[in-house]
Design a protein that fits this description.
The complex is a heterodimer of chains A (about 260) and B (about 450). Chain A has about 260 residues and is mainly alpha-helical. Helix content of chain A is about 70%, strand content about 5%. Chain A has eleven helices and two strands. A two-stranded antiparallel sheet of chain A has the order 1-2. In chain B, a hairpin with a 2-residue loop joins strand 13 and strand 14. Classes of the chains: A mainly alpha (about 260), B alpha/beta (about 450).
Chain lengths: ~260, ~450
Amino acid sequence: MIGLAALDDTRASTPLGRASALVKLAVAVVWLLGIVVAPDPRASLTLALIALVAARWLGAVPLSDLVRGLAPLVVAAGGIAAFTAVFAAANADPEAVPLLTLGPIVVSVAGAQAALLVGARLLAIGAISIAFATTTSPTALVDALVQQAHVPDRFAYGALAAYGALPRLSADLRSLREARQLRGLRADLHPRLLVALLVLAVRHAERLGVAMDARGFGRGPRSHFRPLTWGPLDLLVALGGLAILAAILWLAFVAA
Amino acid sequence: MLGPSGSGKSTLALGLAGLLGRDVPGTVTGTMEIGSGDRGLVFQDADRQVVMERVEDDVAFGLESRAWPLQAMRTRVPEALADVGLADRPRAVAATLSGGQRQRLALAGALAPDPALLVLDEPTANLDPDARTAFLERLAALKARGSTTMVIVEHRVDDVWPLADRLLALGRDGRPLAEGPPATVAERDGARMIEEGIWLPRWLEPPLPAAAAGRAGREVPAAPLVDVHDLGYAYPGGPPVLRDLELAVGTGERVAIVGANGSGKSTLARLLVGLVRPDRGQVNVAGQAPYGRPPAERASLAGLVFQDPELGFLAPTVDDDVRLGLPQGPATAARVSELMEALRLPLSSYGRRSPYRLSGGEQRRLSLAPALLREPDLLVLDEPTFAQDRHGVVTLLGLLGAPANEHMAMVVVSHDERFVAAFATRVMELRDGRLHDRAP
């Protein structure tokens, strides 16, 4: 599962923990674009590896967290790659060079290459997202959005509150499924149940909104308890991220 | 401030906090003058008022909203946390705190801007007795300091009664019913307040009318309808919540289970009705294990009524909601309409209404319908008197004690001592994962 969570103090004090969430987000987005344009699976896999190594060594993320986040993605990427290999359009080309023939199934070299590229890209997208999520707390992201990107308070804190309400929403969903079972019905995701969940979510959001208003939210300009300023670390992370991407793209396009 | 369900206590609380007509839409008539100074509001539900993930960040949230300078915030946040007994947990993740600690965190957040007026809307309703005492001790300390005016809205007033200098009771129509020093009001208007459905402190009001006598007796029945043996349960990756738990309940018996928050009462309720699979041991109802049985069969063995009725509503109208999952036909229609009459929710006037728009008492009664219609052998109720006024609880006692329910075994999980005394034939306490006998 990829999800933001509060970081412990050790992790928050690492270089990646201290760097602005906006810089990390920008580097992640640029890397994702790089993955999409690079025609070589090796470029994607290298970026994935660097992202994970950075999270581990510059973000002090425990290896077990990275593995747990990555495991479902490895399965998904593998599955999609296999599907692509078998059903690639290139396989139907009579001139295609067959790599593997299993009865009626023919996997061409071009098909295998396409599969490898898709799998590597998916893995890299996952790895980069995990590296961002495991080194960024929701609070840090909201602070950066409000103070450095000047996103409106209502939007940023509203998103934070909605994110914080997710566990509550999943508890509500569990109750509603139990309520269906108690009426002798299956606990599946019936549309009725989703409507009821939506009603509960809207009511919860209304209440939370009133509670935030009761604490003076939205009455005027806010001050900041966790002031953020741009620092040399942010520049270093930004430049480092761009340099790594440039080097990898250079290798993929020019050197190859 | 006291009043029955729907008397407008919470609305007045919002008004006093300065939110009506501004952040909460509506039309306000008349005038309300409140002296200068800030105001704070604490709600009942800790989940809805903790905004930030860490304790100190959440306390600072209200200060940031008021644009306090950083240095002042850094001084004030630890003070506010010390005032509520959380000085040692500034960096804790709020979601990992207990319910009582989270509610005190909400108090710290409201207190941080040093409000001249602090409004508390049923602040202890979700807390168990220990957490409630801890919370009220903080209010008593605040009162002793004398710098903050407090308005506390409560249904259950035993604990806050000694704190109050003055009392305002609202009637069901939203008009003031009585006002003055608590002792005077109780003596002068007590009878009228009880009639209106308002709870007075235990020592000032008659006990609740006992539910019609169930099969009494503290000895364990010889051939129990509900037989729980050697039951053990732990959440995945967690320590055991229940262990070696034994329980036998006979037909017509009404057992109350009390215990602190987090002692596993709600988990036990779910195990009894077969929503959750026991890790160890057996739960048998009428000789069968409810867990894993086909849904319809399971539902006719054991029913559960949730603490929060809204979490059990599954359809946009009362009529659709009660019929959901029942076979169609004239027999069902007749039973539904008969039961809804008995619940004082006749389909002719309630059928087309939204369950979410009913009053608290109406929602409570409606939440009984799905269980009662399936005539289960075992009926389990989780905190059924939560947020109910006196009328609501008296009505509930009458409905559950009805002769038609004599064939059921009932188990109630409850903090509510007065309800337990009127309802239960046997009281047990859940402690350290096991049930212990307790004098009723």
